[in-house]
Structure of Non-heme chloroperoxidase:
Amino acid sequence: MTTITTKDGVEIFFKDWGPKDAQPIMFHHGWPLSSDDWDAQMLFFVQNGFRVVAHDRRGHGRSEQVSGGHDMDHYAADAFAVVEHLDLKNAVHIGHSTGGGEVARYVAKHGEPAGRVAKAVLVSAVPPLMLKTDANPEGLPLDVFDGFRKATAENRAQFFVDVPAGPFYGFNRDGAKVYPGVVNNWWRQGMMGSAKAHYEGIKAFSETNQTDDLKAISVPTLVMHGDDDQIVPIADSALKAVKLLKNGTLKVYKGYPHGMLTTHAEVINPDLLAFIKG
């Protein structure tokens, strides 16, 4: 396997496909998945002449199942370790869900200060803040995330069937075409990872306030979100995030679910390509 070791000694798995002299696109996956969740995008973009890179977050997929560091700061630092190892410059960073939070923290704290980022894309992403607070009344109540933790701790294997078979891909909607292979692949990716990383990652994606990260980003940033996202509701994420970005563009997809990168790749991929080339 292709791995690098971070400064705090964690082995991170990554993929690096395509011409090394082509513009790089780096993909950041969602909870509790792995870089495999980007298959449809990585194949599309490598076939369009780009260099494509994706890594498994610490504790996820094929990366080391370490005990600690399951927070946005470590996620972003781990991504930067991959970027530095591969010496990626003029890169486009695309993050889905929790990976969108990772991209926001990475670009704000590492990518832009190091001059390595060209553009960013936040897809169905968690920033600025998912948790309901006095200052964020549109957020989701803490008991929603406590329910995630309970399900992860008590029967992760079943929870990792129920999520993709239901709200993640919108397969619970009337008339939805359900793809059992997609559900099985989500389960496969999730169960490869560490229960501890997944449990602690819930706090990372739900309670990390990334308002300042978004405000600090100056590169062109595309915010893509489905208006039927049942996992990360659009009103408390994309609609707020785009207002905080200096150079943000919002694209809303009517009726699309949280996992639209998989269910509607034939629409999303060309839109990503147009933004990157634009």
About this structure: The first strand starts at residue 3 and ends at 5. The mean pLDDT is 98. Strands lie at 3-5, 11-17, 24-28, 51-55, 91-96, 117-123, 221-226, 248-253. The chain has one domain: 3-277.
